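re: ur question from earlier - yeah i can do the single chain one, its not a big deal. heres the input i used so u can compare w yours
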Amino acid sequence: MQLSDFSFDLPDELIARYPLETRSASRLLHLDVQGQYHDYHFTDILDLLQPGDLLLLNDTKVMKARLKGKRATGGAVEVLVERMMDKFVAHCHIKASNSPKEGAELFIGPDEVKVTVKGRHENLFIVEFSQSILDVLDKYGALPIPPYFNREAESIDTERYQTVFNDPTKLASVAAPTASLHFDEALLKKLEAKGINKTFVTLHVGAGTFLPVRTTDIENHIMHSEWCDVSDESMALIRETKARGNKVIAVGTTATRATESAAQANGGELKGWTGDTQIFIYPGYEFKVVDRLITNFHLPESTLLMLVSALSNRDNILNAYHHAVDSQYRFFSYGDAMLIDNLNVK
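and the output i got, formated as tokens:
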């Protein structure tokens, strides 16, 4: 399949650069198993799910991973912590007028925390901090909100670019699992009262989620690597849900990639797994776990648009997206949501 197969026109004014006042106030577009779409409000998810269904939620927390600093010569730099390897060493993206060489020293904040470039790991820099990375991020970091917001992080993002159920011990993502941003405590309690179950998985979202696909033939694209953890307990709940005829609903593409990676790593068996995943889901992929997906609207020609097209199909997704544009739905991280049914699950 060609990259151009996943293109669509999106007016700039439909990009949601700020959240709504209330998390669950978003709209919801349901794409059913017949490929028909239906307009709802997000709180209608209560009526669209059944008692005994299972929600898969990603409990990662977003780091204040963006740091502004300078070179020894005074030139401005920006360091984005992608993955912490230990207390002092991380793999990072570095923006500077010239790419820093091994041994280069950078300085963060007024007390000039030293960051030394130790080498490269694929497209990332290996850097060593002179102080604890988490301490430096807490003191000087900014939330790495998506580039399409075209603004700096603001105070509203501190709360709203995190899920209400994030696990503080899992502070390692550089992007939010944005489908989960629609859930507030009140809605979660109503879902629980209806008998809809939930379980948590973890995928630490990397900055690669925003990188464009640069190959014309999508099968030549190489996915970025992300760490995930799916417990035996979560997979047991998935098996039990399917056995009684209920649906497994992934909340977001990250929960989808985590659980499908676990199944893939176990030869199709629904068992727990922890490790790095580069799973690339596009049309033709056979889902082992996910029956339905709650997700936001994604960028044209993105791997996330390809993933949702694998669950329904490309024509159904693009038809629904064209309807969303015509109906003024809000797009991307702070935008509205979709509920997509797996065409192969009746």
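The two ends are 26 Å apart (CA to CA). not sure if urs matches, ping me
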